[in-house]
Fold this sequence. Notes:
With 352 residues, chain A is of the alpha/beta class.
Amino acid sequence: MTPVTLSSEHEALFERFSDGKVLGLARAISVVENERPGFQELLHTVMASGPQARRVGFTGPPGAGKSSLVAAVATEYRKLDEHLGVVAVDPTSPYSGGALLGDRIRMNDISMDPGIFIRSMATRGSLGGLAATTKEVVDLMDAFGFDRVLVETVGVGQTELEVTAAADTVVVVLVPESGDAIQAMKAGLMEIADVFVVNKADRPGAPRLVKELRQALHLRSGSALRDIPAHHGVDLGQVVKKERTTEAPAEAPEGWSVPVLTTNALTNDGVDTLLETIQEHRIWLDEAGELERRRRARAEIRIRDVVDREMRRIAWKSSDVRALLARGVDDIANGDGTPYSAAEVILEALMR
Amino acid sequence: MTPVTLSSEHEALFERFSDGKVLGLARAISVVENERPGFQELLHTVMASGPQARRVGFTGPPGAGKSSLVAAVATEYRKLDEHLGVVAVDPTSPYSGGALLGDRIRMNDISMDPGIFIRSMATRGSLGGLAATTKEVVDLMDAFGFDRVLVETVGVGQTELEVTAAADTVVVVLVPESGDAIQAMKAGLMEIADVFVVNKADRPGAPRLVKELRQALHLRSGSALRDIPAHHGVDLGQVVKKERTTEAPAEAPEGWSVPVLTTNALTNDGVDTLLETIQEHRIWLDEAGELERRRRARAEIRIRDVVDREMRRIAWKSSDVRALLARGVDDIANGDGTPYSAAEVILEALMR
Lengths: 352, 352
């Protein structure tokens, strides 16, 4: 392994971090989040011992009550005397860079507990940057020595992917209002969920959503592709078949059938079963060799992310390249080029 | 401008495309979507004349009825004899790559009209790739000569950003169920909306959402930051102030106050007002010089996207680099490295 030298400032920071000082962790996160000079060397140093914490991701659409559920789950783990890190990703304004608080407020009652460290992160608009930094903050929490790291991501679509790249177990949280099982399939939630939770289960529509999800999961498991009636105007059988005939990487876990649980984060109903299920999933991950596989897949994504980010950073920090970019924009505005001709000029300059 | 040579196949394709043959467009989209060899040269060739079409983006959370609204809006534009392209981005499985249909079904009644060309796109999971290709398909539709291109994107969070990079006018579609104004602020919707539409306006909660959005927009315009009572546990005044004191690029349009409209896509209520508002926004874009500014900002994003994509492509196609990647994953699994040491080795190889 390449020997890495930390600046004396980061050396001191690493010492505080290794001593389990929460302020050291907070400072390290801030260095990483702001991509301060040397942040990668710092990450390399703290991550030397590899992943240790149990990482559980919570994702789902806005309004599903994820924060409340994470707070409820965290409270239970605290009763088991686990030390916890919580990373919550807020999809706030890409333009302002400001982190609004909103749901975080609900975590107030647990946030005074010294056994929990909560970090709320804003997304930054840069597609690549966001993903990388979130995962790195999870890595920091892991390296800090928490028994468990809970990662909460909001959003439907791209953001969910991040959670698979940061967590061992992915809990997808839905509510009846967030749509039907078809929409969950469309959003790719079927592929990433290790556990489905229908939260706010006292609301009308919850039993129907549970039933739909179970049906869709059953279909996905391939046991009954044919004789399914059309549903919501879409033939589920067709949809699933189409999906399954596409060249898919072997992502579908074997030997784990995704359960659909119900919870009510406010009354704590179902939270104990959720904890048991997360534990069962962990045992399966270990026994099936899936934890190792997931960690390798994560390592690959992480390497690619770091390389891509460094390539971008190196490319766009060059003042020559920035001048070519500005000229390209002018050319396009004047009808004298396209993004492709401008990009070609920049790429040629980069190759030189 | 760099002279570009098309393959003879793409030369023939370009001819059909320029002749206004829909099959030529469909084929060009497929070339671009699959990033076939020469797709960038093809894009460069068709885009030589610059943007012409009016581009209107529709975005918002799943279940907001965006597809129905786009269908209703498209029907009205057809009555005005406009030729329309519609690009709908489905956040389907990143793993399967398959495009599910779902909402698209509702577009069936307009999809037989030869004056409309609808293309439903799957997202591909690759964060960068997705964004670039979607925008490029919009560019193709623009270059094909449609009077107007409607872009529908689903999702909350990153996906919305894409719509600003593809459209001149961004319509954010919400329903009472999709949450309150605080959530819209959190998701960055305040910053990207040129027009808010509360769809399914006959539902309970619609008037309240309209009121909240207007209040939040009013706050955002900076006219009444101080004397706002705490709301939903969050002091909106604080939130907005925090947001505004952060270093923000000068994105906030001046002279356009974002309207909050109500529609019911199924009964067509409010759709005429939406069309008028989109037209008013277009006039403002022209008169305020904002269209030019937005097109320049888009051009810059596009150039960066193309350069970043090419850098990634060039880097990861190398078999040496792929071997180093595999070795890096092994090293990490064996506790003999981190993503940063592995990335460093790869970057060194790339620089050589």
